[in-house]
């Protein structure tokens, strides 16, 4: 049911799929897909579609890896003169250049597209880009059929970062796209009313998609409430989770004042089946760490985790607040098997295992929708919770656990751990 020739959704479902995350400056950003009716093909979402299941085809397998390296920009152009695209020989992830995208002043966005002479089959793959930008924001990739119906994948881009691959997640479906015959690739970035900024893209690539939806439950920050509130909820449903902890802020015992986990509580979480990973030594945004402290902040937790018997979790890292710098990203690459930061659900295989996507602090009203979306369309969705200090945050965990239990029981969803993701869902092509 999950990888259909036609992917469909209701209008109500699409409306509930606004990207979640902890990036406050994205909250008020207009969705460019809604600003201009999305070119001449814009139609209302439909409610019904075929239940036909598909299997991987030779055509699908043939597009895995780099599809366009932007060495030749002739096939690309700005749609309806919305923004511009040009070559930048000063940057590239491979080859001699990348593409530099800039918004048009009147539209506040850029839309570039490539029309294909022959359609491609994308039923079992997910797209991605290498990208960086002058300021952070959301970048969208649309894959359109000959009628203009499309699937849309999204991911955040951080400013002044290396031009490196990002894992995009499926966040929108418009109409009844025939994914066996996609004719148009489109890249969209909304810059805002000031219409200033640049986006650099390279290495338009495809990775295998994940057929049966996967979900990972994560708890960031090492808060005691994750032990007192979340653990009993997950034990009720026999669900595993991961605690990414700031090792230097853990407490020796309950006599030490503070709101973080004690060493014994961390041990009980591990005994309950939780993975114990790193969220840096202090758990502060890594952009706030001085250069001479950054390496120890990122890497010292590995020694502590291994000494305490959490060797498996020492392979995994979560960037505090999904914030990272070039130096901290490179340290994560060098020292961990997976690292988590992002802003989209339903990612495919990780083409970049050190920027695996997360949905941060999901709202109780949205969490079931995101899980249902994952069950319907496949992919990997990682839900990240923080301090469970109020009814809202606790309810979000309760809603997530209850809905996961239902979907797992129906065979529509599977719960995975970071180890399973690292060992089974990383794409190296």
From TrEMBL:
Q: Mind naming one GO cellular-component term on file for this protein?
A: extracellular region
Q: Name one Pfam family in it.
A: Polysacc_deac_1
Keyword Lipid metabolism found:
no
Chain coiled-coil ranges: none
The main place the protein resides is secreted
Q: GO:BP terms for this protein?
A: xylan catabolic process
Q: Name one GO molecular function term.
A: hydrolase activity, acting on glycosyl bonds
What is the official name of this protein in its record? Polysaccharide deacetylase
Organism equals Natronobacterium gregoryi (strain ATCC 43098 / DSM 3393 / CCM 3738 / CIP 104747 / IAM 13177 / JCM 8860 / NBRC 102187 / NCIMB 2189 / SP2)
């Amino acid at each position: 049911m999950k990888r259909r020739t036609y992917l469909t959704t209701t209008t109500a479902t699409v409306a509930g799929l606004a990207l979640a995350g902890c990036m406050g400056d994205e909250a008020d950003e207009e969705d460019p897909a809604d600003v201009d009716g999305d070119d001449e093909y814009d139609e209302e979402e439909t409610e019904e579609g075929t239940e036909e299941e598909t299997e991987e085809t030779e055509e699908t397998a043939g597009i895995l890896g780099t599809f366009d390296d932007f060495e030749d920009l002739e096939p690309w152009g700005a749609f309806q003169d919305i923004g511009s695209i040009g070559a930048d020989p000063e940057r590239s992830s491979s080859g001699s250049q990348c593409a530099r995208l800039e918004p048009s002043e009147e539209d506040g966005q850029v839309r570039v597209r490539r029309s294909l002479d022959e359609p491609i089959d994308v039923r079992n793959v997910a797209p991605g880009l290498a990208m960086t930008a002058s300021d952070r924001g959301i970048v969208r990739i649309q894959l359109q059929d000959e009628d203009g119906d499309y699937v849309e994948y999204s991911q955040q881009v951080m400013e002044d970062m290396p031009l490196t691959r990002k894992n995009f997640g499926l966040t929108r479906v418009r109409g009844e796209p025939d994914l066996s015959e996609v004719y148009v690739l489109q890249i969209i970035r909304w810059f805002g009313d000031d219409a200033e900024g640049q986006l650099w893209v390279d290495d338009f690539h495809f990775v295998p998609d994940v057929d049966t939806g996967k979900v990972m439950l994560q708890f960031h920050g090492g808060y005691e409430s994750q032990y007192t509130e979340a653990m009993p909820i997950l034990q009720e449903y026999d669900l595993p989770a991961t605690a990414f902890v700031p090792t230097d802020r853990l407490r020796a015992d309950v006599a030490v004042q503070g709101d973080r986990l004690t060493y014994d509580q961390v041990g009980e979480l591990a005994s309950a089946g939780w993975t114990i990973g790193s969220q840096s030594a202090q758990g502060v945004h890594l952009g706030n760490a001085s250069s001479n402290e950054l390496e120890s902040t990122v890497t010292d937790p590995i020694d502590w985790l291994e000494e305490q018997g959490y060797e498996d979790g020492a392979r995994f890292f979560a960037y505090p607040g999904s914030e990272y710098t070039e130096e901290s990203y490179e340290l994560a690459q060098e020292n961990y098997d997976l690292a988590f930061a992002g802003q989209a659900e339903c990612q495919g295989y990780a083409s970049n295992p050190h920027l695996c996507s997360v949905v941060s602090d999901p709202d109780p009203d949205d969490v079931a929708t995101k899980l249902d979306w994952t069950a319907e369309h496949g992919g990997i969705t990682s839900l990240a919770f923080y301090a469970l200090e109020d009814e809202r945050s606790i309810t979000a965990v309760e809603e997530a656990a209850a809905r996961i239990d239902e979907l797992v029981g129906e065979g529509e969803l599977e719960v995975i751990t970071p180890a399973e993701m690292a060992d089974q869902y990383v794409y190296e092509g």
